[in-house]
Design brief:
- This protein is α+β, with helices and mostly antiparallel strands.
- The protein has a single domain, classed as HIT family, subunit A (2-Layer Sandwich).
- It is built from two helices and five strands, in the order H-E-E-E-H-E-E.
- It has a five-stranded antiparallel sheet with strand order 1-2-3-5-4.
């Protein structure tokens, strides 16, 4: 997709610090990291959300899983732990309309989301 920043990164039109890639997936460092390890894992195929995956996209899903393991191993967080985040759609906080995963690690990431205190 012509206006997609991730498609431009995948095509090499925008420089990035690629840490791992295969024929289906590219993993690169986030330009505004929220943790010592903050890598975006992106399918080469332009898919907007997880709902856009089809049965024929099994190899892409496999590559996403392999990328998670390999990036975590390369950055030394495979054993200590990491968080995967997928923001899906407007209510999920998705800002770039190309499905992607954030792999965060290298420190204690904290609770998944801040729990609200019940009223009363």
């Amino acid at each position: 997709m012509s206006g997609c920043i991730f498609c431009k990164i995948i095509a090499g039109e925008i420089p990035s610090k690629i840490v791992w890639q295969d024929e289906n997936v590219v993993a690169f460092r986030d330009i505004s990291p929220l943790a010592p390890t903050h890598v975006l894992i992106v399918p080469r195929k332009h898919l907007v959300t997880f709902s856009d995956f089809s049965a024929g996209d099994g190899p892409i899903m496999t590559s996403l899983a392999v990328a998670v393991r390999e990036v975590a191993k390369l950055d030394g967080v495979l054993e200590s732990g990491y968080r995967l985040i997928v923001n899906n759609g407007p209510d999920g906080g998705q800002e770039v309309m190309h499905v992607h995963m954030h792999l965060l690690g290298g420190r204690n990431i904290g609770p998944m989301i801040k729990r609200s205190v019940p009223e009363g």
